[in-house]
């Protein structure tokens, strides 16, 4: 590396590496249980073994991702103390409560996941087994809820006073339910659901594209796309509220994301483009008034510009690209799922046409990319603060001399884990295709099923 | 009881919980690999798999609970231990990550792999060794706190007989606890072959575990005389622990009441672990940090305790349910039910 050893930089790199890797599995971990629950529910309600098998197969793949989610989650939990000891000392005083509760939620989920996976054929009624998935969904969503309040606190800290450098008057609940909490939590949870729907949808679409005509995949695609459009609409609505939150509470983050230089009303929204060292923007697409509408709901809302802030308090301007890709992908996902549902609804249109299927396939990895971009935007957009306006990132970092070595070790670890996960998941489903498993369970492939779907 | 004492008692109890469940898990990994390597024809493999599969994730939570809880109750520990333990802590994370994920890969995903099971067995011994570093440095003498930065003195740590004896104690205890539990589990499964082998393992590791306990105590005298004195003041706690050990080992040797034997051993470690904890009182890190100067604010302490009680109402019934389904369900244990 060409940079001098600086524990702050290496700590930031290692933290973003761990979180960037963990968030892939965390997102799946929050979103997929809900999809499993929906599939199992449909299986019971329609008395359709295809949906039950869908839940079963998704659950089987899910465990593999959970394992990596658990171990990388343990890693980030410990790394917070190892890399940011001063931050954790301050944070323990203010947000120890939600961190503690997150572990409880995770505990609850872990117990029921263990039970769920091993009791498929154990109970007399299917309903009883279905009930076991509910604590998993609740636990997964609750851990996202609690841990996101911690992140919200770092963006909009409250619930304490600082007198001569010492924290006093701590109120754990006020720290948890800060200004950033409502938009942040709802945005995180709904995008996890959206991403899970698209990843599972992409798998189904891919099988159909590869020429697999089994009705199972069509049902899976339909289920995920209907869920997808609902979550996509939710994401758009909440995304709009998040913009209004930023305008109100973190205008420097919004201004950096949008390259909004001068304070003005009727502010335009800037898409794409390049910015040079003198803050001159080229090749960008400008939508008049859009930023004002995004920020305040009216075209004449006054939006604070970058020039109002001292330079040392501003995040890097490349977060603009993160913001743009997140929003673009979000809109793409909404469009694809809407198109699929609309075409499927019209009787003589073919929703299973190749271009649309390819778009769904692309939606899987793209949705994960949007999650990463969104988090990078949110986190880097808070720089140079680790607790916004209270503690600078450099003040929170460790002083240890070995962070660089640890960074390399963890790069190797995540590379190994990442590759193995892909290999294991592929092998798992390739060696046990759906036709084979249905036969094994005594449900042969029926021609009528296909006709029925074609009719619809 | 002050909030500080409540806090440390809660955390210490969870660390004890981790000690038991993780020992069973780590030891099981080692025995599973060892029995394969010595061509014992997977005698005990099924037993181990049947127990571990539904619970491996829960084991991990006990550990997470402890290190998140300690930052909540005693935020200053993050400053001292966090700075000093970057390297051993990171190594422990890497080992835990490899172990957890490869266990899942092997169990749910791929076919049997020798490499996976070696990884699983080896990490089972290395993780307790790396985790005990924390207990060792809490005795003082391995950390410098100068020029405003905390540093771990690696040379002192690696050349210290005390730190090595703690590592050995941890490993033999892991093997002993695990073997006694698996003996009990095999007897419930009515798997005579597995039972025979595991009983042998349990007896093999019984003596080393108690001997190492005594050696560590002797070496502690040189490391931290104050702590050593405190231990002598409550010598009867450790005497009880020893009696429990003797009775349990006798039962296993006689070949009866394996369940009772395992419970006695759990209580043996409970008394020893809490005896150790109480005599360490009030230091979290000798001599820099006590439970009083590192404590969180009162409203946070109350909130944490309320959350803890609420959490227990959720956890205890769930844990009982999973035990009922997988530990005390004779059909499941015997493999008649999936």
From TrEMBL, chain A:
Listed InterPro entries: Cyt-d_ubiquinol_oxidase_su_1
GO aspect biological process, one term: aerobic electron transport chain
Extent of the signal sequence: none
Principal localisation: membrane
Gene Ontology CC: one annotated term: cytochrome complex
Membrane topology: Multi-pass membrane protein
UniProt KW keywords: Cell membrane, Electron transport, Heme, Iron, Membrane, Metal-binding, Transmembrane, Transmembrane helix, Transport
Molecular functions per Gene Ontology: electron transfer activity; heme binding; metal ion binding; oxidoreductase activity, acting on diphenols and related substances as donors, oxygen as acceptor
Transmembrane segments: 20-41, 62-83, 95-118, 130-150, 185-208, 220-239, 318-343, 355-378, 405-425
Compartment list: Cell membrane
Family: Belongs to the cytochrome ubiquinol oxidase subunit 1 family.
Name the UniProt record assigns to this protein: Cytochrome ubiquinol oxidase subunit I
Automatic annotation (TrEMBL), chain B:
Compartments (UniProt record): Cell membrane
Family membership noted in the UniProt record: Belongs to the cytochrome ubiquinol oxidase subunit 2 family.
Positions of transmembrane segments: 12-34, 55-74, 80-98, 118-142, 162-186, 198-222, 234-253, 260-281, 301-328
Topology relative to the membrane: Multi-pass membrane protein
Keywords: Cell membrane, Membrane, Transmembrane, Transmembrane helix
InterPro entries, per the entry: Cyt-d_oxidase_su2
Protein name per UniProt: Cytochrome D ubiquinol oxidase subunit II
Organism lineage string: Bacteria, Bacillati, Bacillota, Bacilli, Bacillales
GO cellular component: plasma membrane
Record-linked Pfam families: Cyt_bd_oxida_II
Organism encoding this protein: Salipaludibacillus neizhouensis
């Amino acid at each position: 590396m060409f940079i001098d050893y600086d524990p702050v930089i290496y700590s930031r790199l290692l933290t973003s590496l761990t979180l960037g890797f963990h968030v892939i599995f965390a997102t799946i971990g929050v979103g997929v249980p809900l999809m499993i629950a929906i599939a199992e529910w449909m299986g019971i309600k329609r008395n359709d073994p295809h949906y039950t098998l869908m839940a079963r197969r998704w659950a089987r793949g899910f465990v593999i991702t959970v394992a990596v989610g658990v171990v990388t989650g343990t890693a980030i939990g410990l790394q917070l103390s190892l890399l940011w000891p001063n931050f954790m000392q301050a944070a323990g005083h203010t947000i120890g409560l939600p961190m503690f509760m997150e572990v409880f939620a995770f505990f609850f989920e872990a117990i029921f996941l263990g039970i769920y996976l091993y009791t498929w054929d154990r109970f007399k009624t299917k309903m009883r087994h279905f009930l076991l998935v509910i604590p998993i969904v609740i636990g997964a969503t609750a851990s996202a809820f609690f841990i996101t309040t911690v992140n919200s606190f770092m963006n909009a800290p409250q619930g304490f006073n600082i007198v001569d450098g010492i924290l006093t008057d701590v109120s754990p609940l006020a720290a948890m339910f800060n200004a950033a909490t409502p938009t942040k939590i709802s945005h995180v949870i709904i995008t996890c659901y959206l991403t899970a729907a698209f990843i599972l949808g992409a798998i189904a679409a891919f099988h159909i594209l590869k020429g697999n005509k089994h009705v199972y995949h069509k049902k899976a695609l339909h289920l995920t796309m209907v869920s997808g459009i609902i979550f996509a609409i939710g994401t758009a609505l909440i995304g709009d509220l998040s913009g209004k939150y930023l305008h109100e509470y973190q205008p420097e983050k919004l201004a950096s994301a949008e390259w909004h230089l001068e304070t003005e009303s009727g502010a335009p929204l800037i898409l794409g483009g390049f910015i040079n060292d003198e803050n001159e923007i080229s090749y960008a697409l400008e939508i008049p008034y859009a930023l004002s509408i995004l920020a305040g709901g009216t075209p004449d809302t006054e939006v604070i510009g970058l020039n109002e802030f001292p330079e040392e308090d501003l995040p890097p301007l490349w977060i603009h690209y993160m913001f743009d890709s997140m929003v673009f992908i979000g809109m793409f996902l909404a469009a694809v799922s809407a198109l699929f549902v609309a075409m499927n609804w019209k009787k003589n249109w073919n929703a299973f046409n190749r271009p649309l299927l390819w778009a769904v396939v692309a939606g899987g990895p793209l949705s994960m990319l949007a999650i990463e971009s969104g988090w990078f935007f949110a986190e880097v957009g808070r720089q140079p603060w680790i607790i916004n306006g209270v503690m600078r990132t450099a003040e929170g970092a460790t002083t240890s001399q070995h962070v660089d070595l640890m960074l390399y070790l963890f790069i190797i670890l995540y590379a190994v884990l990442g590759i193995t996960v892909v290999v294991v998941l592929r092998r798992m489903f390739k060696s046990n295709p759906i036709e084979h498993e249905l036969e094994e369970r005594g449900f042969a492939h029926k021609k009528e099923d296909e006709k029925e779907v074609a009719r619809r | 009881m002050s909030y500080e004492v409540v806090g440390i008692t809660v955390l210490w109890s969870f660390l004890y919980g981790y000690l038991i469940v993780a020992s069973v898990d780590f030891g099981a990994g080692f025995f599973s690999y060892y029995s394969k390597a010595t061509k014992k024809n997977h005698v005990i493999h099924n037993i181990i798999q049947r127990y571990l599969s539904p619970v491996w994730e829960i084991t991990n939570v006990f550990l997470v609970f402890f290190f998140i809880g300690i930052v909540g109750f005693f935020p200053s520990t993050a400053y001292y231990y966090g700075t000093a333990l970057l390297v051993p802590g990171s190594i422990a994370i890497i080992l835990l990550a490899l172990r957890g994920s490869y266990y899942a890969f092997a169990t749910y995903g791929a076919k049997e792999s020798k490499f996976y099971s070696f990884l699983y067995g080896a990490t089972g011994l290395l993780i307790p060794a790396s985790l005990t570093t924390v207990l060792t440095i809490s005795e003082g003498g391995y950390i410098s706190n100068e020029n405003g930065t905390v540093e771990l003195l690696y040379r002192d740590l690696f050349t210290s007989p005390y730190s090595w004896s703690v590592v050995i104690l941890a490993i033999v205890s892991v093997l002993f606890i695990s073997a006694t539990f698996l003996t009990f589990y095999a007897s419930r499964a009515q798997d005579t072959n597995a039972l025979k082998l595991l009983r042998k393992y349990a007896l093999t590791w019984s003596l080393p575990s108690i001997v190492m306990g005594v050696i560590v105590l002797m070496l502690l005298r040189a490391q931290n005389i104050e702590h050593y004195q405190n231990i002598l003041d409550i010598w009867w706690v450790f005497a009880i622990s020893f009696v429990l050990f003797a009775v349990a080992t006798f039962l296993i040797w006689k070949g009866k009441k394996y369940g009772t034997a395992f419970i006695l051993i759990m209580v043996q470690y409970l008394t020893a672990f809490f005896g150790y904890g109480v005599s360490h009182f009030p230091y979290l890190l000798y001599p820099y940090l006590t439970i009083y100067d590192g404590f969180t604010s009162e409203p946070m302490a109350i909130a944490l305790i309320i959350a803890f009680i609420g959490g227990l109402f959720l956890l205890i019934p769930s844990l009982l349910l999973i035990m009922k389904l997988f530990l005390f369900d004779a059909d499941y244990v015997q493999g008649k039910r999936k």
